[in-house]
Write a structure and sequence with these properties.
Helix content: 25-40%
Strand order of the largest sheet: 5-4-3-2-1-12-13-14
Order of helices and strands: EHHEHEEEHEEEEHEEHEHEHEH
Structural class: alpha/beta
Number of strands: 14
Number of helices: 9
């Protein structure tokens, strides 16, 4: 057994551009499972934006969601752990960031298995099926417990915004970038590695027995934790630099290529 746990990000990694998993990748994961390797989804999406995909896949294991904040049992549709963002601290951090960058557009991901994503004024919603609730009064963003905030700037690139946010408020919160127009403000110290390590303990698996696949900088902590990190060809340059290996793109069965080699009979 080369690895006992296969950790995969969703968007840009396990999912193709059409939001499906290819038959070849499904077969590769099934073959690895037959040899004793568990598959775990580790995604930046919170549970409400993840559970329908897992249901469509017939996935019934554990999933790490919300950048590590949530461990979700897909088989029983239960939220096992959840870490929330201190709203008062987040407001202080946001004010410090805006003092350096100017006004930001903000969206808030509310805590819980059915937590809504509330979008504030000016926030650019990405095309796709993920539901959001719009609000005209920014006060509504802080009305309920939160798992994280999404930040956007009218001019700065995502990399620039993330860097500026870390410089201004990195001692109060964690900041990561998980996709286009997706700079996230998280509880301090939270990462995919933290959530994955908690889930792995439940499964009785160690970091040395884990291989991880990803495509964005928010996957770097997961790569640092796992024994081997594999970046997709479409991955962000920062993640490719941190990877042990670069495979084909998510639309070219990059995960399957690696698993077929590692778990060949």
């Amino acid at each position: 057994m080369p690895y006992r746990l296969i950790a995969t990000d969703l968007d840009g990694t396990l999912l193709r551009s059409d939001q499906t998993v290819s038959p070849r990748t499904r077969d590769a994961l099934t073959s690895a499972a037959a040899r004793g390797a568990a598959h775990i989804v580790v995604t930046g999406r919170a549970v409400p934006w993840t559970k329908h995909i897992l249901d469509d896949l017939g996935y019934d294991g554990l999933a790490v969601c919300g950048q590590g904040a949530q461990v979700y049992d897909a088989g029983s549709h239960r939220l096992l752990t959840s870490m929330t963002l201190d709203r008062q601290l987040a407001q202080v951090a946001l004010a410090k960031i805006e003092a350096e960058t100017g006004p930001l557009a903000v969206a808030a991901s509310r805590d819980g298995i059915d937590g809504e994503v509330v979008v504030g004024p000016g926030f650019r919603v990405l095309e796709g099926p993920l539901p959001v609730v719009t609000c005209t009064d920014p006060v509504e963003l802080w009305a309920e417990p939160l798992s994280k905030l999404y930040l956007q700037h009218p001019v700065l690139r995502d990399d620039e915004l993330a860097e500026a946010a870390r410089a201004a408020a990195g001692g109060l919160v964690s900041i990561t970038m998980s996709g286009e127009d997706i700079v996230e403000l998280l509880p301090l110290g939270l990462s995919k590695a933290k959530g994955l390590s908690m889930a792995a303990r439940r499964l009785g698996v160690t970091a040395q027995e884990t291989i991880a696949f990803g495509d964005m900088p928010n996957d770097i902590p997961m790569f640092d934790w796992a024994s081997r990190g594999v970046a997709m060809a479409n991955a962000h340059p920062e993640l490719r630099a941190a990877a042990d290996e670069v495979t084909l793109a998510n639309d070219a069965d990059g995960i399957a290529v690696v698993l077929e080699r590692l778990f060949a009979v």
